[in-house]
Amino acid sequence: MQILANIIPYFISQVENFSRRERISFAYLSIENVLGFSKSDCILKNDFKINKKDIKSLINIVNQLKKNVPIQYIFEETIFYNLKFKLNKSTLIPRNETEELVKWVLQYKFNSLFDIGTGSGCIPISIAKNSNSIISALDISLDALEIAKINAMYHNVKVDFICDDIFSYIPKRKYDIIISNPPYVLKSEKVFMSKHVLDHEPHSALFVDDSNPIIFYERIIKLSSDYLNDNGMLFFEINEKYSGDIIKILSKYNFVDIELKKDINDRDRMIKAVMK
């Protein structure tokens, strides 16, 4: 791996626990992060000689990938809604489906929003960058909120971050929108998940007990029925298995205009409801 042209073949040959497409993507990301070269630079400068320090950095990245460490945790950052976010292992890696949820919310007019289970702050910060609303965000993890605050400062947006447990927290005001991407993966589904998720992402942000899979939705719906303004909206990312159960609870608390939305994979992964 003495020249730039050798990096992509090296990643392809060494990182066998990811798909070929992912290996190529990781190689380009590593080239950009370590050497500062874009994809076009890789063509124009393919004979560029790499110094020993940078070779060592690239080898270290490959060794971490071999241990199933997600590339986002290696670089401690990711891109979400075209914005760069810092991450650590206390924060879930934002998914494309959550970008779709943010896009859906931004189709509406609102003056205030409350995000529950904010993690890296990707949802409220992305919305703050694209609206003029008053925004609050809650998470039980102080470590996650420290990263969220850094991200908010980096993007020069104001978000009121709150460290508390949603099962005991009482909001101090009402909101036009409440949004949440709570834990919804069943613990029994761990056997179907890849090691880079299981070994490295925070389980508290991912999994719920099979005995009560919609516990977070029940709590947030009940809370929202008291702390949404009239005609306020509640948005969730959901486990498609429980869309029917969630709709029943929403109806019980007098939410109307309940709408399921499919993600890019044609799965019912988002839901919106209006408080009357």
Q: What key phrases describe this protein's structure?
A:
2 domains; two-stranded antiparallel ribbon; single chain; alpha/beta; Rossmann fold; about 280 residues
Blueprint of the fold:
Elements (H helix, E strand, L loop, with lengths): L6 H8 L5 H16 L3 H6 L7 H15 L4 H5 L1 E4 L2 E4 L9 H10 L6 E5 L5 H8 L4 E6 L2 H13 L5 E4 L11 E6 L4 E2 L8 H4 L8 E2 L6 H13 E10 L5 H10 L2 E8 L5 E8 L1
Parallel strand pairs: 3-4, 3-6, 4-5, 6-9, 7-8
Antiparallel strand pairs: 1-2, 9-11, 10-11
Helix pairs in contact: 1-2, 2-4
Counted up, domains total: 2
| Rg estimate, integer Å | 21 Å
Major β-sheet strand ordering: 5-4-3-6-9-11-10
CATH topology of the largest domain: Rossmann fold
Q: Can you tell me the residue ranges where pLDDT is under 50 for at least 5 consecutive residues?
A: none
Q: What structural category arises from helix and sheet content?
A: alpha/beta
Main sheet record: 7 strands, mixed
Task: Report the order of strands and helices.
Answer: HHHHHEEHEHEHEEEHEHEHEE
User: Helix share of residues?
Assistant: 25-40%
Q: Summarize model confidence as the mean pLDDT.
A: 92
Q: What would you give as the CATH superfamily of the largest domain?
A: Vaccinia Virus protein VP39
The name of the CATH architecture of the largest domain is 3-Layer(aba) Sandwich
Just give the CATH class of the largest domain: Alpha Beta
How large a portion of the residues is in β-strands, by DSSP E?
15-25%
Count of helix runs: 11
Terminal residue distance: 63 Å
Topology, number of strands: 11
Global morphology:
elongated
